[in-house]
Structures are given as C-alpha cells and as structure tokens.
Amino acid sequence: MARKDKPLQLRTVDDSAPEPAPAVRLENRETEWKSREPKPVRLGPTVEEAGVSKRLALPDRDEVELRTHQPGIDVLIEPEAAVPEELEENWGEAVIRRNPIPWGWFALIGLAITGSVLWSLSRVEQADEHADWIRTKTVTALVDDEQEELEATRLIERIDARIREFANATSVEALSRMVRQPERVTPLMRSHYKDKPVFPGQLRSIRTLQPVTLDNRGNFWMASVSLGDLGTKSMILEIGEDGEPRVDWETFVCHQPMEWDAFATARPTGTSLAFRVRLERDHFHSHEFADSNKWTCFRLTALDSVETLFGYVAAGGPEEAEILRVIESNGGGGVSLILRLGIPDGLRSRQGVVIEKVLSPRWIYLDPPASGA
Questions:
Q1: Contact at 8 Å (CB) between 172 and 189?
Q2: Hey, which of 193, 273, 298, 369 would disulfide with 257, CB 3.0 to 4.6 Å?
C-alpha cells in the first residue's frame, strides 16, 4: 500500500538544538525511483527572538506529490495497450449486446392500451344502455305507484261508502246485497231479525281501517266502527272479484244457532249445532268423561254469555290434533273457533258436550261450509 505523508504542521525549530540522527528509509519498487527527501526548508522567523524562531516545514512541490493516497501497483501497470479507434468502433456492439431494444414489450403495451380504450368505449355504451333501462323502469314504477295509490284511494272510498250503507240498512233485502255469501247468509238473517227490527246501528265514526291476511288471502279488511249505543264493534269486509267490498254479517253479529246460555241451560239432546266459542285447555273430567286417557277436555265460553261448558274430544283423534294445532299456532292461549257441538241422549254430565267437528279455526268462514255443517 502507498505510504501516507504526514500532515503539514508548524513546529518550533531551535537552531541551537543538535541535529537529529539520520533516518534510514526502506526502499521498495514503488518508491525506489524517488530521490531521498531533502532536508526541511527552513524559513526565517518573522520576529527575531533570542536564539529561537518558528519555521514552516514544506517539501519541494516538484519532488513530492501532495496527495493523501498513492495508487496501487495494480493500477500503475497496464495489462496491454488499448487502441482508441478499435474501442470506438465496438461501442455500438457493446451497447446492443448489453441492452437490446424490447420491441415485444412495446407491442404488448400497445395492445394493452388499445384493449383499454375499446373496453372503456364498450363500458360507456353499456352504461348508456343501463341508464336508459333505469329511466324506463323508474318511470314505469312511478306510474305503477301512482296507479296503485289511486286504486287504493278509490278502494278505501268504496269501503267507507259500504260501511255507511250497511249501517243505514233497514231490511234484510238491503243487507243481502252487501254481505258475503248471500245465498247461505240471507236465511240466517231472516231468522235473526224475525222478532226484531233490522238495525245494524247508527254509525258515528270509522275509527280504524286496515288490511288483514287470512290463510294467505289478502283481500280482507278490518274496520273498527263506533255505532252509538251499540258501542265500538269490529267489522270484516271481503273485496270481491268485482272490486266491491262485502260485509261478513255473521262475525258482525257473532251469529249463533241459539243463545249460548239457553243452550247450556236447556241442553237439547239428539242434535248438533255450530257455535262460535272461545276455547281453552282444561282438565275437568267427570261422569262419562272421567277417563283422561280416553277424553281430552277444553273449556268453552261464548261472547256476551255467562255459562261455561266443557267440550270433550276423543284423545288421539283428528279433532284433538286440529284443536291443539290451532292453540299452538296462537301461542298456547285461548282461541276462537266454530265448533259443531252435540249432547248425546242420556248424558249425565251437566256441563259436558261432545266436540264433533272443527268447522273453522276462526269465527269466519273463508269458504262456505259444507252442506250439513
């Protein structure tokens, strides 16, 4: 490695001091061509002092190179002489060999750009088509909503008019034009009003009106009406195929084949009657129905009545399964049903009746009951 020269510095030179001992310098191939370093050049002092002066020791510029690093021998020795002309002629080849022009990448980039442009144009066209479709659907929906709103308004107006017309009726013939299932219900109305005038009640107001769904049928409405002295009553209306609302008269008056209290007291035997009752589970087993493994018991009551009866069905039979299903679907509490009840001849139980058939799981017949029900 090349020798590093000592940095230049000021030193005090004492002329009276003895000369230093001569230094022996080791020679090598790298420094043998250099002459021995001359003795330091002594500069005269700027200020004369008694026997002491300060001088700057600076070697000769021509004989000593002033740099901190000498190149190594491997740099000084050239392996061979180079011809500039030949080097210049080979410059292009070297560049070509090291960095060839990637023409394939240019082609690929061009294809990608072209594809992006085409894709963008197709998307713009699809967006325009989608926007047109959205506008069309929006206009159609608005028209449909407007039409549906108009039809709903007209329907409510017809329901309101029918309720008022029903409340103002004074004859069975007038009512028969406004009730559901008129062929079956008209005879029932004649029997119901045979000893009293037709007076549904003086309508004061319609408090609520809302659609109801019964067995997936959405053409029923429930109205709560104030009828003066009769108080507030519920009214169910069905919208017929002709769009006309018709009142369910049977639920409006809670029709019974005979008064419940009279039935419970008279206990007619040998006949079966369809009653609208409120049913709950019970465990009153007595007389003919004392065996709980054979009979299942239910408590029966009726609207605006005081008497309570106990209805029995055969345990494990279809009627028991139907009643239990209705109870479960209503959360386990009491349910309203139409039941066909019978009192066998010679029955000793004073409050027991036989539940012969479940005619409807609610107080309304959605479809006319079968003949003989």
A1: yes
A2: 273
Per DSSP, the three-state class of 201 is coil
CA distance 253 to 249: 6
> E-assigned strands of the chain?
10-14, 52-56, 205-214, 217-226, 232-239, 245-247, 272-282, 295-301, 309-314, 335-342, 352-360
Q: Is 225 in contact with 203 (CB distance < 8 Å)? A: yes
Q: Three-state SS string across 243-303, please?
A: CCEEECHHHHHCCCCCCHHHHHHHCCCCCEEEEEEEEEEECCCCHHHCCCCCEEEEEEECC
Q: Are 366 and 214 in contact (CB under 8 A)?
A: yes
Classify the C-alpha dihedral 328-331-333-337 as positive or negative: negative
Reference 300, options 358, 364, 370; nearest CA is 358
Distance CA 37, CA 3 (A): 14
What is the rounded CA–CA span in Å between residue 161 and residue 205?
A: 12
CA distance 34 to 275: 139
**Which residues, 6 or more positions from 93, have their beta carbon under 8 angstroms from its beta carbon?**
none
The answer to whether the CB of 288 falls within 8 A of the CB of 349 is: yes
Query: What is the separation, in whole angstroms, between the first and last Cα of the chain?
Result: 126
Q: What are phi and psi of 232, to 5 degrees?
A: -95, 130
DSSP tag of 19: P
Contact 226, 203 (CB under 8 A): yes
Q: What confidence tens digit (pLDDT) does each residue in 46-93 have?
A: 544 444 444 555 555 555 554 555 555 444 445 454 454 444 444 445
Residue 46 is given by DSSP the state S
* pLDDT tens figures, 283-322: 999 999 999 999 999 999 999 999 999 999 999 999 999 9
pTM for the complete prediction? Answer: 0.62
190 conformational bin, left if phi > 0, alpha if psi -120 to 50, beta if neither: alpha
